[in-house]
Amino acid sequence: SKLTSLDQLELTWRSRGHFHPLLVRVLHKSRLRYYGKPEKKVDMPYQAYFEVADGSGMMSMVLWNSLCPEWYNSMKVGTVLLLEQYAIKTSYPFKTQPTPGDSQMKRFATIEINLNVRDPPTKISIIPEEMVKPEWGLPEVKYRFITRSELDDLPNNHSCDVIGLVTFVGRAERARKREHGEDFWLYRWAHAIDGTSDQPFILELFATSQPDVFEHIHPMTYLVCTQMRVVRDLTENPSSTIYLTTSNESQIFITGWHKGQPYTKDTKVKNFIQWTKTQSEADQMKKTVIGGYYPFPRPPNNFLKY
């Protein structure tokens, strides 16, 4: 059928009521958001953002309400979608922005694609990877993997992807979202090593919309975390408190989940796998720790500073 492109949509969306089908690849995926309130009568108040791209650039796509439980888990990073009967709206200005792996890619930030159950009822088709044709010109998923030795030189809030062998994982902890609110964030600390430094990656992993992965992070698993943000305490000794925290678009993968993921082709991932083959499992097992209380960043040495 006659397809349109994202740059065409941006030029013509105001003058059209009906849009031609779109063929796009998912490059980023946000966590699922629940926006239910007691006074509002929405059956399934869910929303999820995706960044999708074709040969002309990248645009946000929003999955609404009952389409979320139906489609959210199937739309993975790398998935190719054929979209028909979608709506176009002006962008929500306050949403988070992932950092694209390809810095040259054009971003269409004024509008976003909305997928709804009605007005109009969107038709979504997933195209299997083996049926995707090169002439469609869809971009590949690109990553920004770093090694542990490169981390110390990165600025605060820099976005990156990491792979490592888990040596420590803490218990799940909770932090209030707002001071007197009843909602909590769930998170856990983990350490992962990649052989490029004596120091591990220190990872603050908030529960994303992948409970089956979050609950099964164990020592000795190969852990991949994407769209992580660098956090460094710029006041005290900057190198002592550098760690990585998840963002709204972070995805986490552990051993058993890596097959078929686009990052398996990345050079730094391949280098890490080569390094693990040189390691003795028994030696690494002796150094692993699980559970317990992990105060981080550490409190100051004397009480006055604290």
From TrEMBL:
It comes from the Eukaryota. InterPro entries: NA-bd_OB-fold, RADX. Coiled coil: none annotated. GO terms for molecular function: single-stranded DNA binding. It comes from Burhinus bistriatus. Pfam families: RADX (PF17659). This is RADX protein.
